[in-house]
Amino acid sequence: MSIMENLTMNEFRRQVGEYINQTYYAEKAFVLTKGEKKVAALVPMAMLNRMTELEAFYAQTLADKTPINSSDSEATETNQEAAS
């Protein structure tokens, strides 16, 4: 896949089919701009799927690192003492 190319909203509107074809067949990615502002992106599905996978992985990694509540750890300690 290539680096994202800037594309004005007006140009995108004029040739929407052409840019969708380039995204699908050539796997090109575009950043849609309005003036100097970046407003959206047109990306191949493979790129979107990969970003979604990475987002899920990152969310799970953060969840795994979240500290346990003190009430949860107290319950675990009580259960361990009872098992001894």
Automatic annotation (TrEMBL):
Belongs to the phD/YefM antitoxin family. InterPro entries: Antitoxin_Phd/YefM (IPR006442), YefM-like_sf (IPR036165). This is Antitoxin. Pfam families: PhdYeFM_antitox (PF02604). It comes from the Bacteria. Antitoxin component of a type II toxin-antitoxin (TA) system.
